[in-house]
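Trying the structure run again after the queue cleared.
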Amino acid sequence: MNKDQVKGTAEKIKGKINEAVGRATDNPQRELKGDVQQAAGEARKNYGDLKEAAKDMTKRRH
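Done. Tokens:
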């Protein structure tokens, strides 16, 4: 697991929390912030997954 995977997962969790708090407090801006954080976290995690897969592929070739 690399740092992009870890940070992406953490960002997704923060986003879920912000979304839930925004929904509970009827704060659409905070809810939207949570949605954006989740999307950014997912993108970073996917980037980390790709880096990890590329590293695994180069290990197999050697």
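The chain has one domain: 3-56. Worth checking whether this holds up in the mutant runs.
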